[in-house]
């Protein structure tokens, strides 16, 4: 192609050739500038057309030398995740253009993707080649571990941009030949699932070049034609995103715009943006809406941007208030572009209509009504508009593309459209009313204390806002309420314009946790679906409380007899669990009841009793006698009905002897799961090769389990570990948890395998091949998995007891005679009526235990003892005391769901801290990282056994507790210093009464001790007995 551009060439130019032409025509024109250091005040590198073109050629020769010359028109994929904070490293466009010249295509992944997200795109593209910069970011190590690649380290940017000339890498394809060739692989944001690759062809990237040809509309130029006037614009758009591709890759050469970039490894922040305006010599900017929101709130920043000619934004909406402030000092342009459709052809809007988009008719857009005011945008093929229709270049087999953007018409000016979100952003309430949340969110986001917000309510009766504060959550309730009042002024203003069904109520606000920031796309916009998923528990709990507070009296039921109560509870619980039927003796927790459902049932029962008080004028009925513990202790409809009848009719029967009933059930379960144990006279000799130790570990994703896995992997003689967990996403949860705890995550799939298992099912719910593999390879079993819920009764733990018997059968079937090491609890004797120490021997007295958790562990110990004696299974038991967080490490923490962290968290909310802990006052906690090492030693996994030993006559029992106990009182000053001076120390009874009273109004997240009331009440009883 020639060096001069004629009108017919626009929209038919290939970027690699345009770059070469620019180097010949205007070698000294500055295409890019970026800071020499992280401090923009220290000056900038100016990269001319000739230097950039030379760098692209050097990069192309490097790619060919590294990966070879591919087969013609095969376009293999090369993956890359590079620095992408403030600078949008120039190696992104250089690699992309160079790859096109050599015959490859670059795949540019967002560093924000999860490992699964990266692998989904990589697998779909069949990517087996990778370029690795010095900065390893965005889970790149995990990607390379999970997918074998040919990897080459990337030279540094300034090495590629050296002044030393290299020969031009030849590329001579015409537009017709290269139009459908891939230019780059980008991907969707993954807002509704895993991201999907989008192959952007040369023809799609060339559509902004065609904007040169757009005729004026009403005397006004297109946005791109305005930018074609020589400008120097500061851009923060990421280069793995379509906005970065257009502004940073294409505009410097299609429109001779000089792009100024920030430092490579400095995240975009207000101080950096201010510095770039001060020292970057820019007369325009391209910024994310979130950045512009910050600028608009700070007068000094607003003054800086006011010295430039324009700013443009994209990737998300900008609040009207924010845009008005910016538009008063500089021109604001609302640009639109997407991965599949490049930059939209848009006419410059009148200044007062900065937020409206005037789509050029050459785009071929059509609109279909989606609701009374909203219209969905489509691009419909028109052969005369071929050069301007990027969607249909990306998808040449389609004649129409649903863009899924929603717009509202300008009230008086035709052709102007106001962006109102995505079609999948629309919230449909439970009454069928629809609303678009963007205006409300924009108004909330305009508050200086707000970083981001989401309005939710899909399928609910009303909307709720989740608000992430800019400076984190205040530590006191007073401060938080003050912030809420301040933000409410913004919400009130938005409510004025909103339809009745879309208005936000003052109590419908959830503040985001500091440790759960909103999930952002590369363009700094909130990924709605993923963030809603992140806050699913908080949303569900909020609406559950709303429903509890609005339960009608019509939901009450007849309390006159046991059968009427059974009927009423059955209807109630089936409604909550959305079940057709539920048997009177079915375990309601196994059927799906959780803590929130318990609160719903409890509120309904209280409502029923209070209604009976009113109708019968019976003041002896006390609804508060029914607690959450009542439901947990009676886990079937029949048992709960009997318990409720006795409370309502106390004269009917005496109090049932709970201990006797529990002992009978323990005996029954023990007989059930030992009666069919096979008898063996001798232990089968293990036949595993020395060094081939394979461990089956259950419950690896929990606190202790994570440290057990980490300790196992530190032992080189352990060949592999099979992790059996109840969750389907075991490995993902393990990686996430281990990162938080500072534990290793770099295992291979050959050494660690994660399996979704249900131990109570035949073959653990696994397929035959997987189960057979476990049988052949397992030499040791560590059974750590157990539901830690002190509210549940023994019958609710039967699936866990069944799992113990299945592990015994598994061990019997292994050719290696796999040993079985069971993690039990010192809590099996929490009902012991003496202060005598408990020896490391089997406990056979059922009366010493209380509660389902301890009882189930004791039954399991006795099953294993029987298996040891009768079936010669190599079993052993370790009774564990209170496990604390790790010591002598920088990261990790105590499991916040356990009884002590729950006391501390609840005390912060209640404003009081107990001075003593009846029956728990002796502090003998064991750090979790030390406990994991102890367990390996006791299970004989800490070393490579050299010879077999004679088994003992009885099953070994070990106690893992701290040998140097200390009283609770010695810890009080430290805990009090953490909670703050406003928290008072009170007697235990006062604290327990306050926690019981808080059941009605507090959230479980604030007072997690509510879920452990049964445990604390049992400790209180033991304390009163002097135990």
TrEMBL record:
InterPro entries: ACP-like_sf, Adenylate-forming_Reductase, AMP-binding_CS, AMP-dep_synth/lig_dom, ANL_N_sf, FAR_NAD-bd, NAD(P)-bd_dom_sf, PP-bd_ACP. Pfam families: AMP-binding, AMP-binding_C_3, NAD_binding_4, PP-binding. Residues 560-648 form the Carrier domain. The keyword Phosphoprotein applies. Keywords: Phosphopantetheine, Phosphoprotein. This is Non-canonical non-ribosomal peptide synthetase FUB8. It comes from Lachnellula cervina.
């Amino acid at each position: 192609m020639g060096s001069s551009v004629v009108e017919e060439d626009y929209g038919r130019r290939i970027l690699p050739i345009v770059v070469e032409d620019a180097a010949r025509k205007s070698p000294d024109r500055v295409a890019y500038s970026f800071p020499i250091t992280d401090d923009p005040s220290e000056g900038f590198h100016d990269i001319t057309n000739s230097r950039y073109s030379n760098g692209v050629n050097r990069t192309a020769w490097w790619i060919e030398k590294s990966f070879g010359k591919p087969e013609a028109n095969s376009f293999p994929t090369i993956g890359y995740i590079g620095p992408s904070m403030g600078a949008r490293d120039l190696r992104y466009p250089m690699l992309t253009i160079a790859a096109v010249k050599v015959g490859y295509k670059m795949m540019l992944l967002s560093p924000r993707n999860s490992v699964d997200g990266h692998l989904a795109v990589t697998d779909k593209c069949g990517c087996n080649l990778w370029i690795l910069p010095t900065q390893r970011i965005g889970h790149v190590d995990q990607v390379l571990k999970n997918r074998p690649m040919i990897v080459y380290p990337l030279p540094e940017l300034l090495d590629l941009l050296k002044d030393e000339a290299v020969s031009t890498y030849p590329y001579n394809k015409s537009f017709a030949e290269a139009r459908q060739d891939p230019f780059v692989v980008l991907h969707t944001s993954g807002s509704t699932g895993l991201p999907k690759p989008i192959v952007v062809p040369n023809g799609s990237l060339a559509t902004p070049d065609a904007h040169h040809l757009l005729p004026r509309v009403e005397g006004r130029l297109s946005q791109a034609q305005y930018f074609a006037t020589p400008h120097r614009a500061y851009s923060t758009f990421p280069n793995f995103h379509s906005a970065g591709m257009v502004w940073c890759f294409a505009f410097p050469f299609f429109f001779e715009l000089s792009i100024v970039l920030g430092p490579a490894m400095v995240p975009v922040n207000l101080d950096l943006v201010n510095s770039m305006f001060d020292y970057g010599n820019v007369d325009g900017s391209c910024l994310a809406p979130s950045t512009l929101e910050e600028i608009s709130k700070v007068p000094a920043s607003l003054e800086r941007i006011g010295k430039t000619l324009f700013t443009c934004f994209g990737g998300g909406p900008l609040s009207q208030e924010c845009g008005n402030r910016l538009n008063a000092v500089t021109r604001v342009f609302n640009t639109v572009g997407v991965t599949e459709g490049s930059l939209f052809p848009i006419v410059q809007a009148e200044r007062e209509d900065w937020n409206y988009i005037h789509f050029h008719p050459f785009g071929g857009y059509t609109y279909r009504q989606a609701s009374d005011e909203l219209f969905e945008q489509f691009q419909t093929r028109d052969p005369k508009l071929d050069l301007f229709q990027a969607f249909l270049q990306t998808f040449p087999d389609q004649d129409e593309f649903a863009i899924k953007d929603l717009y509202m018409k300008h009230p008086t000016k035709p052709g102007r459209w106001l962006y109102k979100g995505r079609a999948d952003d629309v919230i449909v309430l439970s009454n069928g009313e629809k609303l678009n949340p963007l205006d409300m969110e924009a108004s909330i986001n305009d508050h200086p204390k707000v970083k981001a917000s989401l309005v939710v309510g899909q399928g609910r009766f009303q909307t709720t806002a989740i608000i992430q504060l800019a400076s984190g959550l205040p530590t006191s309730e007073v401060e938080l309420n003050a912030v809420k009042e301040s933000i409410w002024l913004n919400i009130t203003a938005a409510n004025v314009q909103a339809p009745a069904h879309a208005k936000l109520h003052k109590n419908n606000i959830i503040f985001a946790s500091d440790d759960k920031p909103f999930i952002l796309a590369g363009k700094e916009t909130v990924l709605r679906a993923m963030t809603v998923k992140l806050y699913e528990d908080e949303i569900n709990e909020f609406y559950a409380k709303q429903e509890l507070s609005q339960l009608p009296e019509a939901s009450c039921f007849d309390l006159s007899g046991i059968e009427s109560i059974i009927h009423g509870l059955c209807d109630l619980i089936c409604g909550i669990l959305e079940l057709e039927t539920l048997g009177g003796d079915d375990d309601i927790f196994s059927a799906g009841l959780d803590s929130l459902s318990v609160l719903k049932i409890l509120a309904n029962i209280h409502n029923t009793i209070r209604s009976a008080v009113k109708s019968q004028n019976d003041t002896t009925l006390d609804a508060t006698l029914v607690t959450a513990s009542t439901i947990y202790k009676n886990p079937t409809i029949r048992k709960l009905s009997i318990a409720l009848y006795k409370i309502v009719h106390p004269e009917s029967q005496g109090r049932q002897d709970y201990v006797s009933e529990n002992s009978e059930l323990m005996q029954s379960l023990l007989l059930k799961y030992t009666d069919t144990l096979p008898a063996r006279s001798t232990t089968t000799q293990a036949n595993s090769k020395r060094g081939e130790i394979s461990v089956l570990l259950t419950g690896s994703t929990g606190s202790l389990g994570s440290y057990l896995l980490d300790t196992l992997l530190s032992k080189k003689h352990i060949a592999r570990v099979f992790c059996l967990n109840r969750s389907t996403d075991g490995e993902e949860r393990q990686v996430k948890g281990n990162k938080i705890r500072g534990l290793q995550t770099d295992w291979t799939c050959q050494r660690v395998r994660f399996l979704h298992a249900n131990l109570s099912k035949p073959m653990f719910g696994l397929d035959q091949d997987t189960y057979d593999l476990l049988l052949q390879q397992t030499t040791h079993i560590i059974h750590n998995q157990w539901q830690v819920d002190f509210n549940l009764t023994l019958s609710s733990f039967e699936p866990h007891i069944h799992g113990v018997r299945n592990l015994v059968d598994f061990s019997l079937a292994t050719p290696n005679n796999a040993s079985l090491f069971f993690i039990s609890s010192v809590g099996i004797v929490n009902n012991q009526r003496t202060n005598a120490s408990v020896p490391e021997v089997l406990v056979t007295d059922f009366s010493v235990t209380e509660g389902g958790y301890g009882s189930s562990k004791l039954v399991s110990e006795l099953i294993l003892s029987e298996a040891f004696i009768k079936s010669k299974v190599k079993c052993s038991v370790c009774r564990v005391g209170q496990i604390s967080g790790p010591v002598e490490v920088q990261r990790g923490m105590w499991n916040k769901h356990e009884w002590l962290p729950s006391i501390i968290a609840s005390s912060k909310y209640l404003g009081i801290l107990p001075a003593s802990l009846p029956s728990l006052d002796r502090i003998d906690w064991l750090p979790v990282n030390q406990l994991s090492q102890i367990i390996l030693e006791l299970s004989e996994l800490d070393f490579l056994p050299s010879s077999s030993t004679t088994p003992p006559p009885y099953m070994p029992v070990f106690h893992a507790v701290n040998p140097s106990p200390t009283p609770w009182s010695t810890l009080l000053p430290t805990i009090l210093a953490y909670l703050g001076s406003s928290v008072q120390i009170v007697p235990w009874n006062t604290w327990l009464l306050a926690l019981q009273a808080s059941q009605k109004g507090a959230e479980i997240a604030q007072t997690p001790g509510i879920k452990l009331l049964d445990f604390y009440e049992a400790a209180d009883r033991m304390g009163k007995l002097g135990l």
